[in-house]
Design goal:
- It is built from six helices and 15 strands.
- The protein is an alpha/beta fold and 272 residues long.
- The termini are far apart.
């Protein structure tokens, strides 16, 4: 799978900048995808420890800042190469300006609604079914809802994670007719009605991930639907951060004691 970005005409001042060409390259034997356990909101790290590269998808609410920074430190993320934003709400963008101000040179990709924020390296991310690639890691937007929420697939080799990001509008299933989805991140803290049974039947994922929100209530009917499809449901606030190691032809859900935390000792370091 892959992903996309659209070049923009230059517009002044607070408007969005042209898409920059990334210099990073995720082409090692594995990457780690970590769904971070923060008190409120959503944040996911994608890390290549061998080349010391990291991407963050969403930043959680402001009340989650201390915990988010603790996770980044524990994962030895000293530099962020990029931050991707899929939803303009505070539970996704609450720490964005802080991170941009404290991680120098980080590129931000997100919807046009972010142009009201103080983000010097902001790139508009709004082209459906076009790809953005960094070696063997690629992103593809597959849907932008009427509310502007971006759903996309992150692909590494043959393995992928589908980040569904609108809980009210179902997506067109044409994009998954020829793609096997491994893992799905459920939209809006499982408070909505998506994905529908029809979409799940086509997608047929093995694992689903649900983040924590102070302002959203879980839709139990949606959880029952996932269970009826024999999809494992991982609640981040119950299990703690969820560490998944992707190779180019397989993935493994790691225990905390197996996970990589310090790049200087990437094969042996245990959780402290």
């Amino acid at each position: 799978m892959t992903y996309l970005i659209k070049y923009l005409l230059f517009i002044p001042a607070c408007a969005l900048l042209l898409i920059s060409v990334p210099t990073w390259n995720f082409s090692d034997n594995y990457i780690d995808v970590i769904f971070l356990n923060i008190p409120n909101g959503e944040a996911t790290a994608i890390v290549d420890y061998e080349d010391q590269q990291a991407i963050l998808i969403n930043t959680g609410a402001p009340s989650s800042r201390d915990k988010l920074l603790e996770h980044l430190d524990r994962l030895s993320i000293k530099k962020l190469d990029a931050i991707f934003i899929t939803n303009k709400d505070e539970e996704y963008t609450g720490n964005l300006e802080y991170l941009v101000n404290n991680y120098s040179g980080v590129d931000v990709y997100g919807p046009s609604s972010l142009n009201t924020m103080d983000l010097p390296n902001l790139n508009q991310w709004n082209d459906v079914n076009k790809d953005l690639e960094w070696g063997d890691l690629s992103f593809r937007i597959v849907d932008i809802s009427a509310r502007g929420n971006i759903s996309f697939i992150a692909q590494f080799g043959d393995e992928n994670v589908f980040f569904l990001n609108d809980g009210q509008e179902d997506i067109d299933n044409n994009f998954i007719q020829t793609v096997d989805i491994d893992i799905i991140k459920i939209a809006e803290f499982a408070s909505g009605v998506t994905p529908s049974d029809q979409i799940l039947a086509v997608m047929d994922p093995y694992v689903s991930i649900v983040f924590t929100s102070k302002s959203h209530q879980i839709n139990n009917d949606l959880i029952k639907l996932l269970n009826s499809r024999w999809i494992d449901v991982y609640f981040v606030h119950k299990t703690g951060s969820i560490y998944i190691r992707f190779t180019k032809d397989d993935y493994e859900i790691l225990s905390k004691n197996q996970s990589v935390f310090r790049y200087k000792d990437i094969y042996d370091k245990k959780l402290e």
